[in-house]
């Protein structure tokens, strides 16, 4: 896969900002990144939720993560550049070195096994939400109800419902007047002000059951990232057009390294289907190294990409590093180069086809085998328009 990891301005991705070595000004400037604050009880699984997805650490390594001692920021380049803040368990909002309003989302991780600490943990989350809401009513809130695989299915469902119910109750019962000093302009004596806050918070907070051992965690991150994508509606409508013109059943746009779904055409989509497609993508991508020689080798044997990239695809030298201008993947692209592509016949009648779409993105299309066999040319032709459309959207943001 030749272009895997060819990043804007040569920024190594999915790594701690502390360890960055790229000299690019853009790489050291975080202002273009959507900031996500990850908070939660001690040992709830905050670090695991981040590292297994955005740094591709295998789930078997999570028991060896040490206690997080201080805030750690993880930069991740995707359709939207992200900065994910991992926090220690004793984290307090007043320790933040930037205003709370600069975050786009707060993810609260709650350990589903620890039912004796649910109450305190939910109180902490609600307090955080209210404080955050008062400084930025547009902030989004997600709760990852984590380690779900440990409980039996019945018990899991009951606890999940109980946590949601308790969170709504705590939002309703919150002593809003105590936060008067954080929002002196709001009249906390006015019941309509309070009920507006309550309704907004209850309807805004999204719950997901998660586990590092299955695709549920990627699904939960998918909802978080989609919430941060201003261009989501535009990308979805391009996917819908592509899917219907190609007589396909469903299309999914994936972030390659994390395996997170960024957008779908949203037709007849179910969670089961998303899970299956996500699992397919992760299995297939285990073999992606095999695709490298195919696309990085020019027909005449000259392998110019390899001169500019290290084995992870990160640029090691050359123009991009000296150039402070943000560069799009299209600046690096050789139009003659074939894209990584693959298709798998799942059932006699169902085929999944995959194309690497940009250095970060892969498109997975689910369609009838007969359609794939008879209309592949049209589909690949339509794909050039879809790709062009996505490129235009990324250019204007
Ligand atoms: N069963 C199960 N255990 C998990 C899961 N995710 C994390 N853990 C375990 O939970 C423990 C804590 O994980 P961490 O990711 O270090 O939790 P943390 O919230 O970052 O912890 P601190 O930084 O110490 O507050 C580890 O022993 C992990 O093995 C999961 O999905 N399922
Ligand atoms: Mg931690």
Automatic annotation (TrEMBL):
**Matching InterPro entries, A to Z?**
Gtr1_RagA (IPR006762), P-loop_NTPase (IPR027417)
* Positions of region (Disordered): 1-31, 295-340
Regions of compositional bias (Polar residues) in chain numbering: 1-26
Any one Gene Ontology BP term: positive regulation of TORC1 signaling
The Swiss-Prot or TrEMBL record describes its family as follows: Belongs to the GTR/RAG GTP-binding protein family.
**Subunit composition and interactions:** Component of the GSE complex.
This one is known as: GTP-binding protein
Recorded source organism is Kwoniella shandongensis
